[in-house]
Amino acid sequence: MYHCSDCGKSFKRQWHLHRHERIHTGEKPYHCSQCGKNFTRQWHLQRHERLHTGEKPYQCSQCGKSFTCQSVLRHHERIHTGEKPYPCGQCGKSFTCQSNLQIHERIHTGEKPYHCGQCGNSFTRQCDLKIHERIHTGEKPYCCGQCGKSFARLCVLQIHERIHTGQKPYHCGQCGNSFTSQGHLQRHKRVHTGEKPYCCGQCGKSFTQLCALQIHERIHTGHKPYHCGQCEKSFTRQSDLTQHARIHTGQKPYFCGHCGRSYAYSISLRRHKCSNIKPSDFVS
């Protein structure tokens, strides 16, 4: 057996150890001649090069969909067969691919191996870290072709585009309400069930949404990831930063339809309506 001196992991073959050690050294010896991107493994480079050539040599015999690599085709085929060969030893939940099982197992172990160099936040998946880092960089690489609005995540762009198309493909079986995303439907269903699956490990408070739990946890950690570029004040939520920024910009997006006055905050408009508009004002 060959052992990694950095983390102690063992390998049956020496070349497996050498390949693994690149995780620690950061070595990426395989270079793309098109864009200069580097890779730790040769087959990763070969798969990447198909992005430039458009080649998708692996085709699904069931639906005809094509893929750049064979492993992705095999995972896709399990959609048709229903096969989930990777079960979790802790809870019995099964997965179509081993990588999804490994990510899931971190729920039980609490492992978060991907760390943000800016704020120290940790994540169970590398893709979640990359998305998080866009909070710091401000990068929004996904642009709406209709209105030009940009987004940090592709899935958020796809949901946004349904504003333009009017598409609401997810339907509630209880009340018939329709939604633009499956996440919105699942969140809505909790209105009927009363389920609050996201629990704070510090105080035990439960929430219907993961994002609400994450915001709440910042009360305990003191983490304020949203920074004002004008005065350097920090906030726990992006919506709080957006509201605060109106102090600097003077923006007042909330209009009273009765008198035409504008307000920076929706609560200010509501107070104005309650104190100044009588019910008789709406009688014709």
N/C terminus separation: 88 Å
Total count of strands:
20
Helix content: 40-55%
Strand order of the largest sheet: 1-2
* Number of helical elements: 10
Poorly predicted ranges (pLDDT <50, ≥5 residues)? none
**Which series of helices and strands comes N to C?**
EEHEEHEEHEEHEEHEEHEEHEEHEEHEEH
Kindly estimate the percentage of residues that lie in beta strands according to DSSP. Answer: 5-15%
| Class computed from helices, strands and strand pairing | alpha+beta
For the residues shown, what is the average pLDDT? 89
**What's the alpha carbon Rg, rounded to whole Å?**
25 Å
The main sheet comes to:
2 strands, antiparallel
The general outline is globular
Summarize it.
This protein is of the alpha+beta class and 284 residues long.
Question: What does it look like?
Answer:
This protein is of the alpha+beta class and 284 residues long. Helix content is 42%, strand content 14%. The chain has ten helices and 20 strands. It has helices at 14-25, 42-53, 70-81, 98-109, 126-137, 154-165, 182-193, 210-221, 238-249, 266-276, and strands at residues 2-3, 10-11, 30-31, 38-39, 58-59, 66-67, 86-87, 94-95, 114-115, 122-123, 142-143, 150-151, 170-171, 178-179, 198-199, 206-207, 226-227, 234-235, 254-255, 262-263. The protein has a two-stranded antiparallel ribbon. A two-stranded antiparallel sheet has the order 3-4. The chain has a two-stranded antiparallel sheet with strand order 5-6. A hairpin with a 6-residue loop joins strand 11 (142-143) and strand 12. The termini are far apart. The relative contact order is 0.03. It comes from Ictalurus punctatus. Residues 2-29, 30-57, 58-85, 86-113, 114-141, 142-169, 170-197, 198-225, 226-253, 254-273 form the C2H2-type domain. It is found in: Nucleus.
